[in-house]
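CORE FACILITY INTAKE
Project code: CF-77B
Contact: R.S. (postdoc)
Sample description: multi-component assembly, two entities in total
Requested service: structural model of the whole complex
Turnaround: standard
Below are the sequence entries exactly as provided by the requester. Do not edit them.
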Amino acid sequence: MSPKPLVPSFSSSIIEDNRSDGYWVETFHFSKEDRVPGVITSGLVSGVIEFLDNPIASAEFQKSHNPKSTQTNESLLSSFAAWNKYEIGKFHSPVAVVAVDITKSGLTDIVICHDYGPFMLECDMKGGHITWLENPGREGLDKGHWKERYIGRWPAMHRIKAGFFTQKSFLEIIAASVVYGEHDKTTPIPIIRFQAPEKVLEATEWPHDIIDDRSFTVIHEITVKKLSGPNGLDSMIISSREGATWLYYEDNEWKRDLITIGEPRAPGQSKISESPGSGDHWGTGCADVGRIGDDPVAYIATLDPFHGTTACVYTKADRGLKEKKWKRHILDVYGTPNQQMKTGDGPGHYIVCADFDGDGDDEFLLSLFGSLDRDEKGESIPPNTGPNPNKGIMYYKAIDLKNGVFAKWKIAEESSARIAIGGFSGTGRIDLVSMAYNVARYYEEPHPVVTIHTNEFAPKVPQQTAAPITSTVWDGEGMVYFVDPVTIQSSHSLPLIEVANYAISVEIHPKKGKVPVLNGEGVKVLYGSISDGSGARNPLGTAPFPAASTTLTKDSSMEADPEKGAILLRLRPIHQKTFWHGAGEVHVKNIFDVGQIGLQLKPLHFIKVENLWWGGKFKGVDFYNMSGFYFRFLEDKTPIAHIQFWTAGPGVNCGVHNHSGDIFQEIHICLSPGTETGGMSRLKDAYVDTPPDQLNGLPQKAFDHLPLQLLYEHGGLWYRDSYGNAVRGRDNVVSYPWHKWQAGNGSNIDIWMALEFNPALKL
Amino acid sequence: MSPKPLVPSFSSSIIEDNRSDGYWVETFHFSKEDRVPGVITSGLVSGVIEFLDNPIASAEFQKSHNPKSTQTNESLLSSFAAWNKYEIGKFHSPVAVVAVDITKSGLTDIVICHDYGPFMLECDMKGGHITWLENPGREGLDKGHWKERYIGRWPAMHRIKAGFFTQKSFLEIIAASVVYGEHDKTTPIPIIRFQAPEKVLEATEWPHDIIDDRSFTVIHEITVKKLSGPNGLDSMIISSREGATWLYYEDNEWKRDLITIGEPRAPGQSKISESPGSGDHWGTGCADVGRIGDDPVAYIATLDPFHGTTACVYTKADRGLKEKKWKRHILDVYGTPNQQMKTGDGPGHYIVCADFDGDGDDEFLLSLFGSLDRDEKGESIPPNTGPNPNKGIMYYKAIDLKNGVFAKWKIAEESSARIAIGGFSGTGRIDLVSMAYNVARYYEEPHPVVTIHTNEFAPKVPQQTAAPITSTVWDGEGMVYFVDPVTIQSSHSLPLIEVANYAISVEIHPKKGKVPVLNGEGVKVLYGSISDGSGARNPLGTAPFPAASTTLTKDSSMEADPEKGAILLRLRPIHQKTFWHGAGEVHVKNIFDVGQIGLQLKPLHFIKVENLWWGGKFKGVDFYNMSGFYFRFLEDKTPIAHIQFWTAGPGVNCGVHNHSGDIFQEIHICLSPGTETGGMSRLKDAYVDTPPDQLNGLPQKAFDHLPLQLLYEHGGLWYRDSYGNAVRGRDNVVSYPWHKWQAGNGSNIDIWMALEFNPALKL
C-alpha cells in the first residue's frame, strides 16, 4: 500500500436534470472508436432509456468530420448543456441495463430487462422480458428509439450481465430475478444463461439454460469479474440472502464458493414475512472485489443485506496455500433506526471498487440513497430534501488491510442509487457518474439528477506495470534489470559509476528510438543494435580477434534497432585526467543509486588481485580489479552481460588463461592506454603444447598482440564454428585459445572494462 | 514490504572445530524450560551425533541452581569454549535428525535415520533404520549415549520430519528415502507415516502406513509448514525430481498440488543414467515458503535441482480467487561449468525462509557447500580450501515481489551444508548456525566447522501484530481503533484535540495498569473501569439523572480494571482562559496526527448549528457544534463511543428532543460553565402530552434542570428497566424523556462535550 494516500478530490456537475425518476446508470462506450464513454440512464416508473452523450466524445466525433472545431475537452466537460440526451427506448418498468456489442459492429448495443412491475413483491408474473437495442451509429441518434430484439424472460427479472462465462466464443447474458415471483422471497431463483445465437438479427429469442435454481434467494446484485485469473473466464459474485457467493464455471460445471453469509439472520427474522418493519432481510445486497498491489482479490467490499445498512470489508484470514477464509470487518452501519431494522429499506444500494487515486490499490465507493423512514403504520415519511448522513457517496481506502483499517471520505452529498465509473474526462483518471434514487411508492428523492464527479486528484499518468529499468544490490555489486525494449515507448537511462575519465551509464531505447551521441562519447551496445545509417553496432559485432573497432562516437543521432530496440552502455568523458600512475589514484565515483528502494551499495573500489579469492598467484603484481554490474532481463531474469574493471601497471602480465571454468563471451574496452601498448595477447598455435603451468613464463613473441587504443574494443577471442557461433567445450564452457592482458612499457597504468556476455543469448 | 530494508549484519564464531566430517545441524531446545536453543550436529562418516549446548542455556540452568553466578549472556556467547559438546549417540552413516518431545516429558528427544550407506546410489538395502534417542535431562548429559528405541526402516532413508499431519492427537514421523534403493532413481519412493504408539517406551516399532509410493523420485528435502492456514494440520513441500509439490491431508485423503516442476528436464537427460557427468537431475532440491506482510505463502524459494545450481523464487501469477499459478524467477545460477551439468554435484544444498530483519517479511538463505569439480575421468578434484563464489551463505530479500526483484548479500564465506535457525543469542532476533559439508568420497570440505552467525541488525523488539491504538480519518472526523485492553502489557496514549482549557487524549491501560492522575485533570472512562481504591469509575456509572458526578481528579494513582483493563479520555488543563464570549474565540487546536500513515484530518472547528444539515430550525441561535471522534474496537470494529463538542450562548435553548432517531446512550461533560447555570433540562411528567412542535415554547418551569459544573457529568437521562438497562423503543432506539441543554444567563458561553455510548456494549 502506498504510504501517502492522496486525499480524494472530485469536482461535480449535474449532467441531467428535470428527471421524473431515477434508478440505473451504466457506462456506455458508444463506439469502439470513442476515446471516452457516455452513460445510459433509466428510471423504473418513467420507463425511459436515455443515452447521455459525453460532450468530449461527440466533439471528437464532430472534429473527425469537421477538423476546424477548436473547442477544448476541458471547456466541453465544464458545460452542463453539452451532455446531449437521446431517448433510445421506452419500456414498462425497466430495471437493469447492460452495454455490450452484440452485433460485433464496433458499436455498443444495450440489453434491458423490463416489465418488472411496480416493485419486487408485486412483480409482473408475465413480465421480466429481456430486450436488446441495436446501436444505429451516431448518424442514427436523431431517429428516435433503437431497434428492439428479444432475448427471453423470467418474472421479476432484475439484474443482467454480459460476458463469457462458460466459453469464449459466443456472448452470454446472465439474468437473475430478485425474487422467484410475486410475494415469494423463499423459493430459490433461477439464474439463467442466454447464449447469443449466430444470427442475432434474425433470432426470435436466445437459447438458454439454467445455471442454478436451488441456491439463491433475494438476489440483489451480480458483479462480474475475472476471478479465475486475468486469462480465465468471467465469473460472478452473487449478492443474495445467502450472502456473497462466487459463482463460476470450471471443469464443465457451475461451482459455488461461499465467501460470506453477509449480515447474519437474526433471531426472529422470518423467511416468509413480507410486511414492512418485520426485518426479513439478511445476507448481502451488493459486493465488489478490491485489488491491493499485485493481489487482484485482496478484499471483498460488501453492502449487507438487501438495500442494506452495513458497509463491510472481508480480508483474508487464517491463510494457507489455498485461501478460503475471509474475516468480516464492519466499517459502518448506516441508516435511521427504522432503516436499521433490515426491512430492505436502505439506505445503501451499490458498491464498486476501482483505483481512483492511481496508486495501484483499489478503493471502494458506497452509494447511499437516503433516509427512507416509515411511521408507526409503516407508511413512508417523505425523504429529507437536503443532505443527510444517509445520503451520498462514501469513499473508502485501505490503510491497514490486515486489520481492516480504512480511511473514509464523503465525496458526494446527493442521493445515489448507482454509480458508473469510467474515464469520462479523458484524463486517464477514473471518474464517476451517479444516478439519484427515485422509485415511486418506495423512495422518491426530490429532483433526481445524474451527476458527474470528475477526478481531480489522481496522477494523470497511470502507473506502468514494470519500470523499464529496475536496480538492486547483488552481493556487493549492482544488479540492473531491463524490460524488453520492444515494450517501451521512450528511452530511459541509469547512472552506474564514474571510472577514469568516463561517467558510465546504461540506457534502454525503444524500437527506432533516437540515440543522440556527442563527440568523444563511447557507446557499447549490450542488446539489440544502434545505427547511424552507415552501419549497425551490435554487442558482438566486431570481427574476431585480432580485429578491433572503436566505441567512440561523433556528434550525431543514431537509431535503435527497428525490431529489438537497444540496451547500451554510454561512456561520457568527464574531463578528468586521462592517465594515472596507480590503481589507488584512479578516479572512481559511485553514482549507482538504490536509495529510493531503501538499499545501499557499498562503494565499489579497485582491489588488488592478490587479495581476491582466486588471486593468490598474483602476489606483488600491480594488477587490480573492481567488480561490477550485472545486466539481466526483468521478465525471465535472463542474463545479458556482466561488467567489471581492471588496471595493470607497466609490463604486467595479467595471467594466461582460457576460461575453462567460465561460460561467457568476453570482450574488453580500453579506458586508459597508460602503458601505451597494453592489450590482448593470444598464444600462437606453435606454442599450444606448452604445459599450462609454463605459459606465463613464455616470452612475448609466443603471442599475437593487439594493443587497444582508447575506447577501442577487440574482437572476441573465442573459437567459432562455420556459422560464426562460439564453440563449446567440456561442461558447456565457451572454448578460448590461451590469452592474457599484457601491459606495455609506458609510464602509466592500463585501465579497461571487461564485458562478459551470456552465450545463450542471441546478440 | 518495508521501504527501508536493513543491511544484514551477522557476527560469526566457530562453535565446533576439529570435526572429521559434517552434514547435519538441527535446532535443539533441550527442554521446554530453556529460553534459548542449542543444536544437534552429525556427520555421515563419523556417525557421531552431538549435542552442542548453548552456553546461555547451560548458564541459565546453572543459575537456577546456583543464583550467585554473574556471567552475562553476551560474554557467554562470545566465548567459543562455552558451547559444551556431548556425544549422545553413534550410528553407521546417520543422515537426518529431527528434534521432538516424544515422551511428553518437556525434554526434547531426537529421531535419527541411519545405516544409509556411503552415498545414495550405494545405499544399504538392509539399512535406513529410524531410531529415537530419549533425552535424559541435564543431569544425564555426562552419562554417555542416550537410550535408543526403534521406529522402523526403509532403505536409503534420508529425510524425517515430525508433526501432526493427519490428526492432532498422536505424534507422526514422516520418512522419505532419497531413492527407492540401490542404483534406482526411477522407481517412486515410498513416503512413510509412522504414528507414535501409546506406550512409546515399550514399543518394539511404530505402526506405519504409506502416504505415497507412486509420485516422487529423488526426494532431496521435505519442508514442514502449516500450509493449510495457521490452525490447520502440518503439511509438506516435497522437493523431488518432480519439482516442488505440496503434500497434505484433507478430507480423509492425501492430496498433491504441484507448485512447480523446478528445473525442467533437458533434452538428452536420461532417467536411468547414473554415471557422473551425464546430468540426470532435474526438478527441485530444496524449497521453503516465504511470508510477505499478511500473506504467509507469498513466495516459494527453491534450489533446483538435487544438489542444485539454481536459486529460484516462485511468485503468484495470473491470480484469481483460487491462487494456483506460480511464476518462476531464476535469481542466480551457481557452480562451476561442471557443477552446472546437473549431475547432483552441487554447489547448493539448503534453503530456509525467515524474517531475519524483523520487518514482518521473510527473507531466505541459501547454503552453498563449495565447488565440487571433477576431472575428465569424472574423478573429484580436491575442493578449494579458501572462500570462493560457490561456497557460503547467500541472503536474499524481496524488493519487488511481483517482478521477482530481490536484493542479495553474502553473509558467510564458509562451506554450508545446512542451516539451523533460532534465537540462539536470546535477543529476540533470529540467528543461525551453519554446518560445513564434508562427506567422504563426495565433497570433503577441509576443516569442517559449525559456525554461529549472530544477528546484529534486526530490531530487538519483535513487531506487534496490531498496535494498541490505530487511528485514521472518517468522513471529516477522527477514528480511533483499540485492541482489547486485556491483550496489552503497557499503557498507550493518543492526543486528540485541545478544546477550551483542556488537552484531550485517549488512553488504553492493561489489566491492573497504573493510571497516574494529576490534580485538576478530568478522567472519563470509555470502557472497563479505573479505581483509586475507594470506588471504581465506569463509563455509565453515574446514577440516573438528575444525579451528577465529577470527572475531576486529585494527584493520585488509579488502577485499571483487573478483568477488563480500561480505555479512557484524559482532559488535562492547559492554562488557557477558562471562559469565552463566543464559539469563534474558543481555543481549539488540532493535535490528532495521522501523518505517519500519510493521511490528514482537516482541522476540526466549531460550526454554527444553523449550517448543519439538521440545523435549519436554529437560524440565528448562538449554538455551535464540533464533531468529533469515533472510538471502536479494532478486532471486531464494535463501536464504543463517539464524542463531539458544543457551545451555547447565554439563554440559549438547544432544542427539546428525545433521540427518537438515534440509538445511543448519551451523557455530557461540562468544559466551561460560561452561562453559570447551563445544563440538562428534562421535561416534567406533567407536560408529556404537549405536542412536540410546542415543546420549545414551554417555560423553563416545565423542566427539571441540572446545572453542570466544570468537569462534571450528569447521569444518563434514558429510561431504565428494573435491571437498570436502557429501555428500547420502536426500531430499537434508546428511549429518552424529552430533554435539552439549557444555557443560563451568565455573560460567557457554555462549552461541553457529548459522549454517545454504544448501548449494545456492556459498559
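Facility notes:
- The first strand of chain A starts at residue 10 and ends at 16.
- Chain A has a mean pLDDT of 92.
Invoice: internal transfer
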